[in-house]
Design goal:
105 residues; two-stranded parallel sheet
């Protein structure tokens, strides 16, 4: 049998035709059926890239990211700091999530 040929030390006793056919079908599926998408190269498959999803940078092809917003005289990680960063022309605002004094995020 095929199973005892592949695994010579394992002595399986398949007593009925049903078990034999089940074993043959399982082995056939393992060797001959491919899952959808496995044949595609994940690098060259036509999926949107992160860069294609981002807006175009405003500053000569360079993305400007404001860390914690524009915090010159404004509390860091606050809505006014984020608004000021956007007003100054930043493409993104990096936000640090922290627990406030009252226990909120």
């Amino acid at each position: 049998m095929l199973i005892t040929f592949i695994f010579p030390r394992v002595k399986l006793q398949l007593n009925s035709l049903f078990y034999r056919l089940s074993a043959i079908c399982t082995i056939s599926l393992l060797f001959f059926v491919q899952a959808p998408g496995l044949a595609q190269d994940p690098i060259t498959a036509s999926k949107p890239t992160l860069h294609s999803l981002l807006p175009q940078p405003r500053n000569a092809g360079i993305y400007v990211v404001a860390h914690r917003g524009a915090h010159n005289g404004i509390p860091e990680n606050s809505l006014p700091a984020y608004e000021k960063a956007i007003e100054l022309g930043c493409d993104f605002v990096e936000i640090d999530v922290r627990t406030t004094k009252d226990g909120e995020l």
